[in-house]
Amino acid sequence: MDTRTRAAALGALTLCLLAGCGEETGAPAGRTAGQPAPQATGEPWYDEVAPAPSSGTAGGTGSTCPVPVSFPLADGWTAEAVEVPEGELAELVGEALTRQGGTTARCEVDGRRAGGGFLRIWTADSPALAPRAVLEGFAAGTDDAVSGQQFRDVRAGAFDATESTWLTTSELTGETSRAWALAVRSAGQTLVLTVNEGLVTERGDVLPAYRLAVRGLAAAT
């Protein structure tokens, strides 16, 4: 190759690199914004679990689920605000049920009539904390033994989010179950969506409603 030909080839290669030749643009065919394809099948994420059918939406500060996000409700699931019971003893009991690891429960989505468990939405008591730090505090804020916490960055509807999963071994029963949680920032707050297996609920009972809510998450007032 003579000098003139080599120079022309190098020039073409430089232009190609600057223009991004060979790079993919946009999302792959079949992908929808905010709904990434499954990334990890099986333990611990179970991305192959499909979202439940939708039946309405919940969320918004003036709604029965008073949080600054909206999300689709799974068919048969209902949302309501979390209220601490009144009275001295009730307040102590309520504190144990509505606060965990630097967060306060604001909304509970009940799926028992549909054969599921609960999806809860919490707000961080310290608005300045980043999503991962809030998830670390939440998982650690229990008397039960926690192990194997993992994290990943995901897209949750309109939000960039951090997702976590961990194992919890009950201090009372010795049973081990898995929990999943997602943290996002909205309206100056860090919010956490949580679901977990239980004595009578398995991942197939709770993950479909959780997947639906996560993939349809949007900002609300």
Structure commentary:
The chain is of the alpha+beta class. Helix content is 23%, strand content 35%. The protein has 4 helices and 11 strands; from the N terminus they run αβββαβββαββββαβ. The protein has helices spanning 3-19, 88-98, 131-140, 203-215, and strands spanning 54-59, 69-74, 78-81, 99-100, 103-110, 118-124, 145-156, 159-169, 176-186, 189-196, 218-219. Strands 3, 4, 5, 6, 7, 8, 9 and 10 form an 8-stranded antiparallel beta sheet that branches. Strands 1-2-11 form a 3-stranded antiparallel beta sheet. The protein is globular. 31% of the residues are buried.
Using DSSP, what is the number of strands? 11
Helix content: 10-25%
Number of DSSP helices?
A: 4
Q: What string, H for helix and E for strand, traces the elements in order?
A: HEEEHEEEHEEEEHE
What composes the largest sheet?
8 strands, antiparallel
Structural class: alpha+beta
How would you describe the shape? Answer: globular
Tell me the radius of gyration: 22 Å
**Averaged pLDDT:** 83
Strand fraction band? Answer: 25-35%
Distance between the termini: 66 Å
Low-confidence parts: 1-34
